[in-house]
Amino acid sequence: MSHKDCYHCGLPVANSDIGQFQTVVLGQPRDMCCPGCLAVSEAIVNNGLEDYYQFRTEPAKKSDDGILTKLDKLALFDDPALQEEFVFDEGKHKQIQLTLEGITCAACGWLIEKQLSKVDGIKQVAVNVQERRALITWSELEIKLSQILTTLKRIGYEGSPFNPDEHEASYKREQKTFLKKLGLAGIMTMQVMMLMTGLYFDWFGAIELETKQYFHWVALTLTTPVVLYSGSTFYLGAVKAISARTVNMDVPVTIAVFGTYLAGIRSTLLERGDVYFETICMFIFLLLLSRFLEHRSRHRAAQISANMMQHVPVSASKLLTDGTITDVLAKRLVVGDVVLVKPGEIIPIDGQVIEGRASVDESMLTGEFNPVSKSQNSVVYGGTVCQDGSLTISVTKTLKHALVNEIVRLQSSAMANKPKAAQLADNFSRYFVVAVLLISACTYGYWSLQGSTEAFWITISVLVATCPCALGLATPSALTCSMAKLNRQGILLKRADALEQVTSITTIALDKTGTLTKGKFTLAQTWFAEGVDAQNVLALAQALETRSEHPIASAFLKSTSPETASEKNAKQVPDDQAEAFTVSQFEVTPGGGIAGVINEAKCLMGTALFCKVEPQDVNIDANVFLTVNGRLLAAFVVSDSLREDTKETLNVLSKTHELVVLSGDTQDNVNTVTQSLPIAKSLGGLTPDKKYNAVVEMQQQGKKVMMMGDGINDAPVLASADVAIAVGNATDVAKTAADVILLGDQLLSVPELIETAHKVKQKIRQNIGWAVGYNVLVLPFAVTGLLSPWMAVVGMSLSSIIVVTNSTRLLGK
Fold first, then answer.
1. What residues does each domain of the chain span?
2. Is 1-162 assigned to CATH 1.10.510.10?
3. Predicted confidence (pLDDT) per residue in 379-431, tens digit
4. How far apart are CA 263 and CA 286, in angstroms?
């Protein structure tokens, strides 16, 4: 860079400005072209990050001359109303995904992470240079979002909230670039091969030396754009790796390409020696082809979940209080709004049906194509299709927190967690690259000492043939394809390494209510204390259960209850006592019951232990009791029925796993449900801590435990299990503790999960086995000179393509 070019952005500095805008960088005064670049460079230097200029591979983006004025406008991002759309609450902290503008290389990502990590209040920074995105977690008590964006602005980068549509557009731009490079390499490879193959096999007959040299010059001319443009992807990767003081598979590729290219130029200029221009073109073309296939398979895998947002309509028909309907943006709907969905329309938001009946296609979420009947109080999800009938829906979640959005976020988090197999493969590939470079150097040294004229070309063959591209693709390609397949079946992984752990599970522990059973409860029998009013007591129970999220509550929210003999003994209470009940000081005890104060009386409702009563005091086999100020007023038998696929699922799982039921229900009820099922052990009457202890005890015995549950009381045990699965319409607490979420209502998804996990393990082993086996097999041929460079190119590329193709077979199974 000349002294008349801006040291920061590389643009020319006007003669009148030379010396006016200067910053001392790396011990020398550097000219800048404008106040904006001066401000950014000073910020970089003042924060001790001068290494950015040493490691960068391209100049930075020109800074805005009005940078200091525009910083004030970023304060708009502190508006809570504006943040509501793109900022997520993570407990004590907040989190945002930013699209970054101005990133040109890996050094930019390094600079951003180093700069932001030094700012008080920022808890985590992760920059994805390839996707030009950053995930930032911060404490709102210590720093504001505008200050984070200001910090980015001061070092020359623009940050804005991540937009999924932009991510898709970014992929398409990447794909176009891939296709341009691949197309150029393919066309030139065909042309160069026609020329050079004709020369090798003497297809042109006896031609003069001048004509042969002319062909060499033509081949060099055609090869140059392939080397400089099509192959640039590999060189940038190698430069970034070396800048970070490490090596990757791009390093031997770069050495091989430039070594062969420069040797060909030398032979062409000196008019002696061999040229392998067709080998270079073919090498770059096949390597690009394998990476393009990997790129496309990754996208194909990711878009199954990421493109779920495309199912959500932009607009919604909002029902106003005066009965009129107006079209609004779906993302502007708030909790409590009412929308109307007509037959054939897509439901725009998560909500609860308040009027109407219809069949809804939820296949985009669950993978099940049978429509689900929806009526009053049913839960519906944005992106699903109302096939027939109209639904009036009350919004329960904004679009930001809708299920489809949560799936996309969870999937991104899952892909960030690498399983041990992937980590081992990454580490091994780095060491393998170092080994390849050492073996290549030793090979060159040996053949040179032997006086062989082919020493250089033998070394190139070693570099190309043993390039561990296939090894680097072995694990990630299989994981992305398997996660895509599971998403399509309505199985959402919160962490990719859970698949690895699923294969080692020996024991499956299951909750009963809502897991084995439907979770749709009814009052089978009731008992009332003598002298109380049955209807009044039922109203009191309903008032308590209205505040509860437990599935049992639904049994009490129905207008009628079964008549029992005990009701005949219950006397009527005067009308002035049958007043509406207002609950205060409401509390939930997971695994026990609920409590509240009604008319200054302490009411408990739940298990016998929780209510401190003796079950034998009633003449029915009750599992729910109600006391007021310690007096037992009523007892209920709340029944449930098995899911349709419970028996079939457990029959499949029992062949390979020990099955255990851990339930908070009474032991008698648990035995009744499990007596016809292939359950090894059934434990009832367990509190959340007893469930937790039961799983810990099994783990201490050397068992690997998978826990399946759906309720608040299952959260502790789900968190303690080796793999946790939230089943069906699980509570938010259970979903948070789980590693896997079943979006559908089918237990048969669990055997599919286990089967897929074993297939993934098998594919990874096959891929790694093939990649390592190929390199070990081909190395002796390359080192001994039996493998020419073009043969090495074909073998290496086919090895990578075989690995990617083998992984993509998971998508179709």
1. 1-162, 169-304+420-480+762-812, 334-398, 491-517+642-743, 522-639
2. no
3. 888 878 888 888 999 999 887 777 777 665 655 554 445 556 656 666 676 67
4. 21
